[in-house]
Design brief:
Layout (H helix, E strand, L loop, with lengths): L2 H10 L10 H10 L4 H20 L9 H13 L12 H9 L14 H17 L3 H17 L4 H4 L5 H13 L5 H4 L1 H14 L29 H9 L6 H19 L2
Helix pairs in contact: 1-3, 2-3, 6-7, 7-11
Length: 265
């Protein structure tokens, strides 16, 4: 795209409302940071959308708190917008406005535990990236906290070495403490979701969602792993650290599990 195209696109974006005075400054700020012309146009359009939304709700720039921003993004997702509907998409815009003192700074929070930080990241993933309903998010967060607090030792040391065997051990331990099939419809899908997030976010090096048992039918079936494809099997086996005692144990368990099930049929 040449400069004339960029200029034409820029002229088409009309910013109205309380954020209009900051449109040119935002473009210049992003250009100084090295953002591409196309990206600058995208951020200018988000500024226009946000400013128009504030007008429709009778809100001023000083009321643009994080909760208000999240409400704006939720409404965009509900309207079918797919691009730029996560909090990260508004970070350059909000950073610029906060630097000018136009919008409130992020709320200062007290020191929190690592598990709370991770739960917060997971909540934003469920709400912003997945767009799940509030009730589902609450269930998933509750199950995530159960699993993360069950793990031994600090999370920063445990998660990089998380193994398929530990995932299976958690499910078995949880099943022995419950006599309800509710774990089928809540805990296991929630655990798979958490493990997918941990892998995508870089907290766990290998995807372990495939290690979660299927949990179909009666509670006694929760210990049985789901049928997995070759790629899933290879990924789970690769997650076992065969240089450690625990890793070799997990590797052996996974290799012999099919034979043990066959013997008990």
């Amino acid at each position: 795209m040449d400069l004339n195209d960029v200029a034409r696109r820029r002229r088409r974006i009309v910013v109205q409302g309380p954020l209009a005075p900051f449109a040119d400054g935002l473009r210049e700020d992003l250009a100084e940071q090295g953002f591409s012309p196309d990206t600058i146009v995208d951020h200018a359009r988000r500024l226009a959308d946000l400013s128009g939304w504030l007008v429709a709700r009778g809100l001023a720039t000083g009321e643009l708190t994080r909760e208000v921003v999240r409400e704006f993004l939720r409404e965009r997702r509900s309207a079918g917008v797919r691009a730029g509907v996560g909090e990260r998409a508004l970070t350059p815009l909000l950073t610029y406005l906060r630097r000018l003192g136009t919008v409130p700074p992020p709320a200062v929070t007290a020191a929190v535990e690592p598990v709370d930080v991770l739960i917060g990241e997971y909540q934003r993933y469920l709400e912003d990236e997945r767009g799940l309903a509030a009730g589902t998010v609450r269930h998933y967060l509750r199950c995530a906290r159960m699993f993360l607090t069950w793990l031994p030792g600090p999370l920063e040391g445990v998660l990089p070495r998380l193994s398929a065997g530990q995932v299976i051990d958690f499910v078995r331990d949880w099943n022995t403490r419950r006599r309800s099939t509710a774990v089928d419809t809540v805990t296991l899908p929630a655990l798979r979701s958490l493990l997918r997030f941990l892998h995508v976010a870089g907290h766990v090096p290998v995807g372990l969602a495939g290690a979660v048992p299927a949990g179909r039918g009666r509670p006694r079936n929760l210990a049985r792993p789901r049928a997995a494809g070759h790629e899933q099997v290879r990924a789970v086996l690769a997650a076992c650290d065969r240089h450690s005692t625990v890793g070799r144990r997990d590797f052996a368990i996974l290799l012999t599990a099919p034979r043990r099930r066959a013997m008990h049929r």
